[in-house]
Each structure stands twice: as structure tokens, then as C-alpha cells.
Amino acid sequence: MEQQVPRISSGTDLIIVSGMSGSGKSIVLHALEDLGYYCIDNLPAVLLPQLVSHLREPQGPLYSLVAVSIDSRNRQFLEKVPTNLQNLRDTGLKVRIIFLQSEDKTLIRRYSETQRKHPLTDNTTPLADGIAEERRLLTPLEQDADRRIDTTRTNPVELRSIIRDFAAARGKTGTTLVLKSFGFKYGVPMDADYLFDMRCLPNPYWKTELRDLSGLDEPVVRFFHRSPLVTQMVNQIGAFLEFWLPYFDLENRSYLMVALGCTGGQHRSVFITEELASRFRSQELTVQTDHRDLYPVSTAVPA
Predict the structure, then answer these.
(1) Residue 262's beta-bridge partner residues?
(2) Protein fold of 7-171
(3) Cα–Cα dist 298/303, whole Å
(4) Where in the chain is the domain with CATH 3.40.50.300?
(5) What is the biggest distance separating any 2 CA atoms in the chain, rounded to whole angstroms?
(6) For residue 230, what pLDDT band results from cuts at 50, 70 and 90?
(7) Does this model's pTM top 0.90?
(8) 173 pLDDT band (50/70/90 cuts)?
(9) Does the pLDDT at position 295 exceed 50?
(10) What digits encode the pLDDT tens for the residues 63-77?
(11) Distances (CA, A) of 52 to 31, 251, 255, 282
């Protein structure tokens, strides 16, 4: 019996997964597949219009969730990203883009550990040059991404959780506010749209009884609530975001990533993140939180 070709329904959610090689695209596709998406890995971009056409044929099982991986080898698509994306959206598809990135030194380490070959390296092109060229080629797609994810310090379990949240938001309207706490000593998140520094605030680390706790623990929460400076920081950042979020909505931005950092990512940034999340959830906005450095770092995303 001839195999039936799946077709797309009206309102189909098409997710394009892209990003740096070694940043975890395979993990994202597997996570989406587990969520019921019809996934295609490394589809030549020139075939993407044909895929959409076939998925719209009147016969075959119905697929409303589709995910396609596009990497740096798809130069034809990357050279005209805005036009190609608009052509897809003109067919009635809801197209969302996930873009994965990691620091160069992390990508080099992952390739060293797995002994895999980078797609843009050869006998005359070293790994570092291949990574640099890939970043250049993928810049247009990164700029058009709905969600950029920095996997430098993200393990596979955390990445799957982020993808579940992203997929679950497909029917929601408005900009999703993503609040991420982090520690400056571990590096600044590469996926932040806005970054705020909390290191000017009182630090519970210098109180012995609070040092081993976090910004989620009640004694630390009480410590911060007693500080007018902390309250002022929360109110000013909150007011800034309240003013600008509607303008991101007008631009049809799916996500706005706001990173809040302190020295170690345990106390100040965690508390401020939770306070802001509570504030915006009370306004019935969609809010996601991520405490990047709150817990011990586990195995990073493999290549």
C-alpha cells in the first residue's frame, strides 16, 4: 500500500529549529516529537515549499503540528530569510522559530568530546573558523527568531522543559515574558533582550545564616522585603517593562527575555526574578521563569 503523505490543517503550527551546530537541535526535535510534532531533521531548505505543498494535499492523515530543522548548510534559505519566511506565512501557516546558541568555547569542547565533524570544517578550515562562519550565516535567522535559547549552561532535561513551555504557548496571544536569573561569575546569558545588574543591592551572602539559602527561601525573602533599595529596584524594572511590553506586542514578538544577574545567581537575582514574575502574573500576562545558576551545574547539552 502506498504510504500516505500527511497534510496540514488550517492553523497549523510550523516550528523551524535552527542554531549553532552542537547547541542541542537534536534534543529539541526529539522533545517536539514527544509532544506530537511531525519532525523532519536537516531538510534541505529548497524543499521546504514542496513540503508545505505536500502537507496541504487533501488526502492523508491530518498533521497540525510540524517541526523542521534547518542548519547552516541551507544557504539558499538563509540568504533570503525574511522573504522565505513571509512566503511560508502567506500560505496560512503559523511559523515560529527556535534558535539555539552556545559560547564558542563550549561548542569547541563539545566537538572535542564527541569527536564529530563540524558541517563547515574541512582539511583547510579549523573548527574555530567553521563556528565563526556558521554564526555569520545564521545571523538573519537568529534575528527573526521567536525564541533564542542559550544552551551553554543548560542540560538536556532543562532544554526539554523550555521546549515544552514554548510549544504549549502556541495558542496564546501577546508577548511571553521570560525572566531569567543568573550569576555574573558564570557568564552573561547570550539570549537576553534586556539585562539588569542586581549587584548593587544588599547581599545576603555576607550573613552567615543566609549564605547557604537562596532567594526562594523565606528568611532571604524577609531580608529583601526589609530593604527599600530592593523594593525600588523591583518597582523601577517593573515599570520599565510595563511601559515597553505593549510595544513588543505591536511588533508581534512572541517572547521577551529579561535577564537579572547578581554575583552567584543564588540570592538577589532569584528574588527579583520571582517578585517580577508575581507582579506580571497578577496582570494576567504569560510569564516564564528560569533560575539558570540556582542549582549545581549538571551535564551540559551534548553536541
Answers:
(1) 183
(2) Rossmann fold (3.40.50)
(3) 15
(4) 7-171
(5) 72
(6) very high
(7) no
(8) low
(9) yes
(10) 678 898 888 877 767
(11) 22, 26, 25, 40
Name the E strands within the chain.
7-19, 38-40, 62-69, 94-101, 147-150, 176-183, 194-197, 255-262, 287-291
Residues of 97-112 as b/e, b for ≥16 C-beta within 10 angstroms?
A: bbbbbbbeebbbebbe
Report how far Cα 253 is from the mean position of its chain's Cα atoms: 13
- CB proximity list for 139: less than 8 A, separation 6 or greater: none
Task: Please report, as a single letter, which amino acid is at residue 29.
Answer: L
User: Is pLDDT of 89 > 80?
Assistant: no
In 70-173, at which residue ranges do the beta strands (DSSP E only) sit?
94-101, 147-150
Q: What is the pLDDT of residue 172?
A: 66
Q: At what angle do helices 81-90 and 48-55 cross, to 10 degrees?
A: 10
